Each structure stands twice: as structure tokens, then as C-alpha cells.
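Incident review: delayed structure delivery

Summary: a single-chain prediction request sat in the queue longer than the usual turnaround. Root cause was a stuck worker, restarted by the on-call engineer. No data loss occurred. The affected request and its eventual output are reproduced below so the record is complete for anyone auditing the incident later.

Affected input:
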Amino acid sequence: MDLNKIRKKAVEIARTGGNSTLEYFNKPIDVVFKDDDSPVTVADQHAEEIIREEIIKHFPGHGIIGEEFGVENGNSNVVWVIDPIDGTQSFIHKFPIYTTLIGVLVDGIPRVGVIYAPALNEMVSASVGDGCYLNGEKVKVRECSDLSKATLLTTDVAHIYKHNFGKSFEELLSSVRIHRTWGDAYGHLMVATGRADIMFDPILKVWDAAALLPVITEAGGSYTDVKGKETIDTGNAISTNPTLKSEILAFFD
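Output delivered after worker restart:
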């Protein structure tokens, strides 16, 4: 299987789907709240419909898992995992760091990842063995070996406490140079492109995580859950560089 070929097509599909959200961005839009209290808009649904159509057109035998419309052909050995708008709160508040995510699983393992920020025109993509790219240029995580000089990113701090990571987070926070909430998938993009050193996500669904693991690892970074397991299935994640990894994970023991 040519993963790099799939990556390039995933980039095209993410751009097509992601750009459709710009028709709604920074404009009045109705918001509906799902059963889990997460927001959804017509922009999310429209983008996922477009992405699904493109995947089916180019890869009719592949499966799809999407945040808005569920599972299709889920028994395929190749499954595309879609989050049409990751960071919907940013989107509805007219803040441009929302992203469109596409991950491709081969036999259940994340092998291709795309993070696209349409409002910023930043396209990060990776396939296993081929490196990580920002708008076509190869990128790597930043070489930071001193936690006291590190930049830590998170999304909603309230979720950190809600999911019982408060003490660990406070200890980590007191050890770094600076903390900002440039979060959701964009925070992981910042780590992959060498603009931040740590991104901590206390809660993730599979469509949030599938694109992130190959992007971070192909950028030379570490993507694990708080127990140090490289996975997209346990609902939390830390992206960082390999040098800081052990020191960070020690806060979550």
C-alpha cells in the first residue's frame, strides 16, 4: 500500500472539505448541542458530507468513521477517520484555529494523518515513513530539553479538572515557562511544527486522535496517553518531544 499516495489524496480531500467551512466562518450560524453537550453546526455536517463523498469516489472499498454521520463499511482493513471541524467552539466564536482532521487507519493502526486549518491556510500532513509536512515543507518538533523553558498548550482547562487531571496539570504547569490555550488539534499542530513543546488533551474521541498520532511521530515527536502508551483509544493524549516525555509523564503517575 502506497501510504504517501493516500496522504496526498487525504490532503486534497481535507482541503476541499475544510474550505467548505469558510462559507460559514465568521458569519451568523445556528448552533445545536448534541446529547454530550458538544456543539454542532451545518458547517460541520456539510464538510463531513463532502469529505465522505470524496473518499467514496476515490477509495470505494475503504471504510469511514465520522463524528457527525457514524460508521460506514467499518470492517474494511483501511478506514478513514474524519472530524470535519475540530474546535467547533473556536469556529462558532469566529476564532481561526479550528481544524479539519483526517486520519487513515490500516488494520486499526494510524498510518496517515492530516490537520488542516482552513482559516489560516495551514496544512500539516504525514504518512508513516515519509515525515511530516507543513504546506509542503518538512517540519520537526522543537528541540527543548529543559522543561522550565517549555511552552505548554491545552484546550479547556475546566475539562482537565473534570477528568481528574487537576493535580498533575498544576504540577506540570508550575514547571514550564509559559502556558496558553491554543488547543484542540491546533495545539498538536503547534507541537509538530516546532512552535510549542507540549500539548495536553484530557479528553479525545477517536476522530479527534486518529490524525494526530502519525503527524506527531513523523515530526519526530512523542504522542502517548498519560500512561505512556502510544494509542488513539484511551481518551487522552500528550504530544511533546522525546526528550521531555518521561519528565512530563512522571506528573501523571
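Verification: The first strand starts at residue 32 and ends at 33.
Action items: add queue-age alerting; document worker restart procedure.
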